[in-house]
Known about the structure:
With 306 residues, the chain is an all-alpha fold.
Amino acid sequence: MIEFFSAFADPAVFATVLRVMTPLLLAALGVLISDRAGVLNIGMEGIMLSGALIGVLVSAATANPFLGLLAALVGGGLLGALMAFFINGLGTQFIITGIALNMAALAATTLGLFLATGDKGMSGALKSGVLPNIDIPLLGGVPVLGPLLSGHHMLTYIAILAVPAVAVMLARTPFGLHIRAVGSDPKAAAAAGISRNRVQLYALTLSGVFGGVAGAYLSMGYVSWFAQNMTAGRGFIALAAEVMGMGTAWGTFAAAAVLGIAETVTITMQTKGLPSELMQMIPYIVPAVMLTVYAARRQAKARKIS
Length: 306
């Protein structure tokens, strides 16, 4: 057990945890914002997948990875706004809308990849950009802390900094107050003059922005290419992370870290010769177990109150 925890003091292992945690954290924060507004972003998987492809295509066309990131961000936001239009404008159910978006994104990204490269599998033929890592001045030379905290991907730092930003936004700003009001009691919010449709539009758009950035990280940071269905269920795991985080930004951060550690253990154990199929189940078993414990605790608390 001591060896297990001491392994995370290894800069390489710690970097792997941050690497796999980053897209989960970004997507889970996006889910958190929409969920607090009363409309869970089930379409996060599709938004991430779309953001990943948009980032690669735009960065390849412009030879500028930052424009690719910007395009992924805008594309994710537009998809979030589109979900809000269907849910509040056309009256569709948000779960069905999210599932439809995920299915449409899978088909559309495969078609887009084929039209751009002539390949339905991956974008290896495109010279897409990669967003840089950042060396923190002065800290990089500090023993132990330097290798642990410096030199990570720029979106990893942005994801971590987004945690307090989202926490403050939800707790301390008028927009956050409106989100919480609409999410907790739409009728009372309407009586106070707060438009549920407008707040949910903004919340889903912002949620989509986070999803687009998470997708851009996958194709321009985690790896340097796009592959069909490369999100591999991370959008759904982000939904679990948000639930595990109990509706708070810091709780979501802790849940994403736990899931990042679980995936890192999977990667590490695969190198020890254990069956890959068994190890690949770990990132999905961990949220299932934690959600079961969470549901059991909520039921016990409800019974105690009643």
